[in-house]
Design goal:
InterPro entries: Bact_HTH_transcr_reg, Chorismate_lyase_/UTRA_dom_sf, Tscrpt_reg_HTH_GntR, UTRA, WH-like_DNA-bd_sf, WH_DNA-bd_sf. This protein has 2 domains: 79 residues, Arc Repressor Mutant, subunit A, CATH 1.10.10.10; 155 residues, Chorismate lyase-like (Chorismate lyase, 3-Layer(aba) Sandwich), CATH 3.40.1410.10. The protein is 29% helix and 33% strand. It starts with a helix and ends in a 6-residue tail after the last strand.
Length: 246
């Protein structure tokens, strides 16, 4: 079986990256390869340093960075663990698939509905479209490592995609291939309690806490291209944003 030391060796052969960044890459790959489970502590920093032949300072710097990214979490007295909660940077416009892959998770979707039609009055208002304008609708359950994370109800301006079938795993990847990926977005976050249907789809209980996120995505020329409403499990997702005084 592949070990962390082997991953470090393979990465270091042709890498000019600092040693701590090589270790971060190796740890990401080890998590992706399921060398460590979500309920299993990583080896102690002292043990990692001894096994890999590097300093504890390097190990600590690598792990500190992964903790800041939200990939790992420190549990005082227990060690470092894979963070089973997802921290989503509210200020960064990335897709669900990109977020999951960056954390070593495997994204997939179960389709609830995939259809084409014309805008509703609300969609026309949000997307600034004329009545009767064509749109594509994508409703699905988004999974990470077989765990249902959110319900996604997206409406895309039809001219932004070559066809309804263009979206397979990642909607943003399909939009990017078509040259119409949003470059900025307005997002609104609100709390809710999952109703019976939402809870069933997310394998939760009715009344459990959830997070509703509405996103309106814009192209570089200012045209709105995406209106999406997602319902996230409150026990699995944290939204974070960096604030400053500027």
């Amino acid at each position: 079986m592949t070990t962390l030391a082997q991953l470090m060796h393979n990465l270091g052969q042709h890498s000019s990256l600092p040693l701590y960044q090589q270790l971060q890459r190796a740890l990401r790959e080890a998590i992706d390869k399921r060398l460590y489970g979500p309920d299993e502590a990583l080896p102690a920093e002292r043990q990692l340093a001894a096994d890999l032949g590097i300093s504890r300072i390097t190990v600590r710097k690598a792990i500190d960075g992964l903790v800041e990214e939200g990939l790992l979490v420190r549990r005082p007295g227990s060690g470092n663990f894979i963070n089973t909660r997802i921290e989503k940077n509210f200020a960064k416009l990335t897709s669900f698939s990109e977020d999951m892959r960056a954390r070593g998770r495997t994204p997939r979707s179960v389709w609830l509905k995939r259809s084409e039609g014309t805008v509703t009055p609300e969609e026309a208002l949000r997307l600034r479209l004329s009545p009767g304008a064509p749109v594509y609708r994508f409703h699905r359950i988004r999974y990470a490592d077989e765990i249902p994370m959110c319900l996604e109800y997206a409406t895309i301006v039809a001219t932004a995609l070559p066809s309804l079938e263009a979206v397979q795993v990642s909607m943003y990847e399909a939009l990017e291939q078509a040259g119409n990926r949003p470059v900025r977005a307005l997002q609104r976050l609100s709390a809710l309690l999952l109703n019976a249907e939402q809870a069933e789809l997310l394998q939760a209980k009715p009344g459990d806490a959830g997070l509703a996120v509405e996103r309106l995505g814009f192209l570089r020329d200012g045209r709105a291209v995406e209106f999406c409403r997602s319902i996230f499990r409150g026990d699995m997702y944290d939204f974070v944003a960096e604030l400053n005084t500027a």
